[in-house]
User: What shape does this take?
Amino acid sequence: MSTRPKTVYDVVIGLEVHAQLLTRSKMFCGCPTAFGAAPNSQTCPVCQGMPGVLPVVNRRAIEFGIKTALAFNCRINPACRFARKHYYYPDMPKNFQISQYEEPLAEDGALEIDVDGASRTIGIQRLHLEEDVGKLLHEGTLETAQASLVDYNRSGVPLMETVSRPDLRSPEEAAAYLRAFRAVLVYLGVCDGNMEEGSLRCDANVSLRPRGATELGTKVEIKNMNSFRNVKLALEFEVKRQTQALEAGERIVQETRLWDADKGYTRAMRSKEYAHDYRYFPEPDLVPLEIERAWVDAIRAALPELPRQRRQRFVSQYGLPPYDAGLLTQSRALAEYYEAAVREFPQPKIVSNWIMSELLRELPGDDERAIERAPVPPANLAGLLALIADGTISGKIAKDVFQKMVGSGEDARTIVAREGLTQVADEGALAAVIDQVLAQNPKAVEDYKGGKTAAKGALVGQVMKATRGKANPAIVNRLLEEKLSKI
Amino acid sequence: MTGKTIHALGEAYRRGDTTPTAVTEAYLARIEQLDGQVGAYLTVTREPALRAAAAAEARHRARAPLGPLDGVPIALKDVLCTKGVRTTCGSKILERFVPPYDATVVARLAAAGAVVLGKTNMDEFAMGSSTEHSAFKPTRNPWDLARVPGGSSGGSAVAVAADLAAGALGSDTGGSIRQPAAFCGTVGLKPTYGRVSRYGLVAFASSLDQIGPLAQDVRDAALLLQAIAGHDPRDATSVAAPVPDYAAALDGTVRGLRAGIPREYFAEGVDPEIARAVRAAIETLRGLGVTTEEISLPTTGYALAAYYLIAPAEASSNLARYDGVKYGLRVPGAKDLIEMSSRTRAAGFGAEVKRRVMLGTYALSAGYHEAYYGRAQKVRTLVRRDFERAFARVDLILAPTTPNVAFKHGEKEDPLAMYLNDALTIPVNLAGLPGLSVRCGFTAAGLPIGLQLIGKPFDEATLLRVADVYERATPWRARKPALS
Assistant: This one.
């Protein structure tokens, strides 16, 4: 008996991304949006959902939404409307969220992503605005805690929800989409893109279908993935879980599952944890919003260069490999850091190498804040590279100097001068050291003469060690060869 | 000293005949003496009232009053948020709720120098037509204590009718200002939707609610509207249209105005005594130069049904916030959050509120949304079009305010019978139009009857002008309820 050929499944993923907008005030009141303030210090009757209060739309949030929609080539609807979405949860003071439903701000856009060198276009179904909810604080879980406290500082912070089409075909593509998406938002300055602090949040819809099938399989919604890594891990887990279920002849249940990052699996939410019927209806306290053409045009005209355009320019203008260009343009701050450094030290690939291998290792991330706080500003990096180029220090010493720059914030020249790290390029001094090294290492000299050319490396190493790394390697090599040939 | 109209009080202050403090003290004394019989007030704010009166008195003495309301004692329906003064909405769930802010209308009245005597009783969350559905006590009609004052602004109507305040504010979602005004024989004005800011009005049905005055006469209503009307940046549905000088509009000229008489408003179910009184009022106005023509508002009969889907739908949403988490009542002892909210809402809401929350939740539910809420919105559009067509031909519409006069306490136990009370006021809310009720006679039993004037959007001035002319041409204003 032959075994039935295994069915091959295609993965279908769609992402819903919530981004907190970087407006100064909240979506429907004048309270500040800053993160990390004392609980309930940034609230007013409106965002506390007091009886009698009314929302007023933050025009800046609409502008940010339009900006983002244009960056994704969405169609901006000439009129949009807010709607109430109902469910009971104590972090939501009115027990409804003002969101958009049938008439969103924008629809039908796209985002291009690159995976394994190939580019794909991922559809964006809609983009809409809504208000964030507060935060519950309790010991343990909501079910077991003796008491819960609510912090409404986040309540009413503007959120932009963007729903992709189910065009993503793997967890890698989903991660790539999220990275590209985040880059656009950060470039536009509409969101800081910080997933750990929750200013960028992502839910995924995942389903499988037999290869070749056109109909979509039953989808499962995955929530609670609070980093790029977790998005990928959670989706990989879920794809595996669904594959195993299907292979075992089970049916996929349409449900919402939570990613548990500590345990590394998704678990079904209790049905109580999510509402089935949001009872949407148009928000009667807000009039339909008409988006004037001229406003959209003005926003379009002021759009900055976007990550993809910038990456292409980095390849063509600086001759960088696409990999470097992609990495350097992931955040606007990093790209700007790079360009500032290249202006001072116009050897693009060398600058790129140093940023990728040294700078990024020292930073907590590549976002605006991390780059702004970088202890080595672009001019200082360029200054260090100039010292290598003019032979003042060796590449190896330069890495140590860089570490010291990170620690102290000083520029390279100051550190090199103070610590006497200038490269030894004095041929007379080096010749004496080499003579000493040759005398102390007769075995290596013998090996070299016997044809083992690799032995020269060991001798160079000894010279460098004797000069504590300060010897100019080119001169050491030349002098050593001269002397060995004479032995 | 009580019982003077606002404009007469202003005159008396100007002449120095009396002072805001004396008048405020007189009202507080009368409330103490008589409110036990009628139950107009839920909270009397004696100390702040006397402080406000003293400040007003100083301004009057300095001959620098803030305007016609400076030092005038008024009452506020307990649906309007007052900073530091509990605002119950007639509900157990907000029995101890003290707002941290003033409603825009409250702030505007304060800026005009008005003296707030207290907060008046109402049907819970403004849901009702009799003020029997207050969680705290019923309010009684001063013309016959066995009868209801109408509702939901029954407390405010009685405060004005029984001289327990010089004027008052109420709110009107389906007739809640005009119907009690008719039952108590005061003037009641529901302004155009968007004319007055709703910020700080505890919401019942947001697309229908509007704040307006209850007053002793039409001129007082104009003065109160003047103080509260106008755009408010805190209410996106308030309109930026300029506010006319309403008192100046009371110039007595009505000749040539065209009034429509909608035949549907005189149909079966309207008390013949009311129909007679309203027809007589129309004749009076014709004698004063108003031309009239019969018109038809064919969707009138569907308005009530549409209203009882839209208003509860919005109410179910607006009242979702009362969950015991943040303010108001919290029933202790629950083992989890869901139980805490459920028990709080079960204990905190009265039967009528629960009925409407359930009705509204159902109307918005998946599968029923289009059939109920969706259809009701379409009917609402048709009702609005009826009025638009009518107002292409006429300047205002004249009709009864209510199909019946004040009924007895406990007489309308059947919710549907109660709802039918608002059949002639509800279409105006659905269309967002201004409506005014003015006394136009009495039944044989001595109960007041209301004439309703319905206007074009933002044309409160015409309603006030016509009602003022009518009021001055007829003897009805003079009669007062006997209360001692």
Remarks:
- The two ends of chain B are 15 Å apart (CA to CA).
